[in-house]
């Protein structure tokens, strides 16, 4: 439901991708989670991206990537510059990124028995600048270290800088309209696969460095462990996700539980949002045809009672349960031009929800 085009201009390559997937979602009466802010103009239904790549910027195999991604309610601009180094040294990538997106997981308002989340009037404008160091791969392990300066500004739905949410509670750690921090991040990933199974594990650790007294100081970690196993004609995938944060914290840094990729049957963050979380997912897929699979799934998640520790306690104010279970069935369709996923889920409040997803669908 989209279009892709590549243009070569000298040594540079321009990739243009326009995706009209949301029009298909609208035709299936799947309502968007938050109102369209521009009055429903045609551009609001377009999801697109523009990417410019130069493989040899200064004649020494330096690579420059400039990309812009537009979603229904969010936008991201990314500039990445890579210069070659010997394989035994960490590969450097200098990154400048700016994004604007609605903050739904923590400040969103659950509706329809927690099956959807609406806008809470809080949006994040995030600017980051730093460097990524990709360590040489060792066996099945890869590692990335990054250090970045981040500046997060909080905006209302009409684009004004704000210090408090709709109920008068602070939306930043500093109490002003923005937070600043220098973040040192270490990420390690493990992956191993055979014909009948696969295993994946990732661990992220973030440390806020106190360069200035008003900047955030915190330690945050997150892990994801996934195991896939073939059971006759079927394939079972199970995963466990968890994390925690200590130290300074703004509400938008909380772990949001609920939604697609977390606990299906709930809206984004509708289960809870806390300083800690634990989410378990399992899915069994069965082949129906060569390109169509059926799926049965069970998800459960909890904020481990840490919702009350988030500044302003947004989860309690919105009546989030703190834990929840979702289960259901779905279809997975694979084609040369993309993947289609439809899930029919029910949450702990017996509210039924349809999740619809399309990836890499283009002409």
From TrEMBL:
Pfam short name (any one): Omp85
Keyword field: Membrane, Plastid, Plastid outer membrane
GO terms under cellular component: chloroplast outer membrane
Protein name, as recorded: Bacterial surface antigen (D15) domain-containing protein
Location relative to the cell: Plastid, Chloroplast outer membrane
Coiled-coil annotated residue ranges, if any: none
Occurrences of domain Bacterial surface antigen (D15) (ranges): 56-352
Main subcellular location of this protein, as a coarse class: plastid
Gene Ontology biological process terms from the UniProt entry: chloroplast organization; embryo development ending in seed dormancy
Species this protein is from: Linum trigynum
Keyword Repeat: no
